[in-house]
Amino acid sequence: MSYKAPRRCSNGRNFGVERHQDFAADIAPRRPYENKGPNKWSRNLVWTASDGNKPRKNGNTYGSTKSQVSGTAASVSQQRKNAGYGQVSDTRGWGSSNRGSPKSKECVCKFWKAGNCKKGDQCSFLHSWSCLPGLVMVAALEGHKKDLKGIALPQGSDKLFSASSDGTLRIWDCHTGQCVHTINLQAEAGSLICEGPWVFLGLPNAVKAFNVQTSKDLHLNGVVGQVRAMTVGNGMLFAGTTSGSISVWKATDSESDPFTYLTSLEGHHSGEVTCFIVGGHRLYSGSVDRTIKVWDLNTLECTMTLRQHTDAVTSLLCWDQYLISSSLDGTIKVWACSDNGSLKVTNTRRHEQSVHTLCGMSDAEGKPIMFCSYQNGTVGICDLPSFEERGKMFSTNTVGAITVGPEGLLFTGDRSGKLRVWNLAGTKV
């Protein structure tokens, strides 16, 4: 079975218009960007089988036998056999993969673990760490004061973007790890994603779209409420808000109207929209109203509502035609398509802590792994489809943002504003 990433919104089009000084001027001047080709990574990497557009029928029980694990791993590995993680690219950062921890001693500070280390950044012991072989922290980026709402490394850029509820957008140089620009948004940032060279920033009643290659930006109207989640699919941008609405813009080839407001999907979610994922020809949206809505990307109609969670849905992931969801109820659920076409839960993983973020990538051997962020600051790392634990990452606060970057890079942001850069090196585990 072959795997492919979801369709990208930009698709080579130039959506730029005359730039607005309030957003773009603070970023210039900048180093010329190079177009290094398509970026195969997205905010939450989606593995979607090419022979279908919906989760797999549950006649083949998810994660039930050992053969499924090896079979899935073999097919992914074969497709990605030349995509192993090695040294980090010199052009996009953070030094080489064997650089290890920025601290002098690879030992966790016992006072930090207890929450009372008084040395702070001057401490010679680690204040963030992981126990997954081959995964090392290569940079600790300090500056945000509140929780990270999104981390984005757009295509063709050597700058990392991060947005926080502290009302700032920070831009970091991937070569030095230094913050080169801090933009006061004069509003709370609710979401940040990138697609191709575009960076999308969710604000109250608006979305900002900025192109890192052309320095042009858009102010997208048509939003009611604070934008909390965004995604792209089938040539459209979707923004979910605190009001429960989902605003939709369509990418066009028109120079005068490159990003056209299409519609608002109203009257379905009764609470804040918290997360999206696109799989095949479907959009999935999660909400604090405890439901997951399934939308047809061709008709923009809601085709079904999933109601198995007992608390707010926090994150969604598509893998091998399965839908995986997490919730504040402490569960991770796996959904598969039944014989009548409806989605049914085929596996429920229960945890003592509420689950906040899911993110997927492939390890050095091309095997799919999933990162699961919990309330207590830990991030579990497990194999798919077996859910066998591979390792953990640790932080003093809940990790609310996890973004996959190129060449084994991983970015995490926690509720205190700490931004960490990790590298999954080429070590076989």
Structural features, described:
The relative contact order is 0.19. The chain has one domain: 7 Propeller (Methylamine Dehydrogenase, Chain H). By secondary structure, the chain is mostly beta strands. A five-stranded antiparallel β-sheet has the order 3-28-27-26-25, with no helix packed on it. It has a four-stranded antiparallel β-sheet with strand order 4-31-30-29, with no helix packed on it. A four-stranded antiparallel β-sheet has the order 5-6-7-8, with no helix packed on it. The two termini are 24 Å apart. It has helices at residues 21-24, 66-79, 110-114, and strands spanning 3-4, 48-49, 129-130, 135-141, 148-152, 159-164, 168-173, 179-184, 191-195, 198-203, 206-211, 217-220, 227-233, 236-241, 246-251, 259-265, 273-279, 282-287, 292-296, 302-306, 313-319, 322-327, 331-337, 343-350, 355-362, 368-374, 379-383, 389-394, 399-404, 409-414, 419-424. A hairpin with a 5-residue loop joins strand 7 and strand 8.
In short:
It is built from three helices and 31 strands. With 429 residues, the protein is mainly beta.
